[in-house]
Amino acid sequence: MEGLKNREIANRLQISVSTVENQMTIAIRKLKYELRDYLPVLLFF
Fold first, then answer.
1. 1-28 pLDDT tens trace
2. Angle at Cα 36 formed by Cα 39 and Cα 33, nearest 5°?
3. Are the C-beta atoms of 5 and 21 separated by less than 8 Å?
């Protein structure tokens, strides 16, 4: 939300960059799944 790069997030949280990347991938996958029903509505507008 702050527009940080993965390396900056990793430094702030003191975790590896690969952990940040993996967690972002999981989050995006979950968002896509949860928002799947809204895609037709968004394409309509």
1. 899 999 999 999 999 999 999 999 999 9
2. 150
3. no
Q: How far is CA 28 from CA 41, 44, 45, in A?
A: 20, 23, 23
Report in angstroms the alpha-carbon separations of 35 from 32, 40, 41, 42: 5, 10, 11, 10
> Amino acid identity, residue 33?
Y
Identify residue 34 by its one-letter amino acid code: E
CA 19 – CA 25 distance, rounded (Å): 10
Distance (Å, rounded) from C-alpha 1 to C-alpha 16?
A: 19
